[in-house]
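Hi everyone, sorry if this is the wrong subforum. Our group has a chain we'd like a structural model of before ordering constructs, and none of us has done structure prediction before. Sequence below.
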Amino acid sequence: HALPIECGQTISQPYIVAYMTEQLRVGERMKVLEVGTGSGYQAAVLARLCRRVYTIERYRTLLNDALKRFEELRIHNITAKVGDGAKGWPEQAPFDRIIVTAAAPAVPQALVDQLKEGGLMIVPVATSGARGEQKLVRIERTGDGVKREELLPVRFVPLVEGVAKES
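Answer:
Right subforum, don't worry. Here is the predicted structure as tokens:
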């Protein structure tokens, strides 16, 4: 099961983190965008595998805690900011890989637009089912559009637009 963390969010079960990382096919020279820093667990895993991770979190509290963890673990190839993950990080685009750790109602076009040609994105997407089912989807940006592959059923917190208002 997913484990609760602050701000009503969750950390994915380790199997899902490993599976998503494997399906992303990350290489050591790649630049990766993560949407939804959360505890920083997924970003820390990715940082061991690629050149640089850019990670966006809508909750400042979560981001600050994750930054402390990166510092303690001496991980120096992660750049993080508070922001609206659905919009991506256009100033740093294009990305070789994008990973989204919250379920979108549809594949966010802004993120597709920030993928390099040949780039891959892993994103949980809500299906049209009445019971709130979600599918993990791999998107490949090709010369003439995108290739979409459904991987497996999942359950993630929803991808919420905007930056969280925190007390």
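For your construct planning: The chain has one domain: 3-154. Residues 47 and 53 are 6 Å apart (CA to CA).
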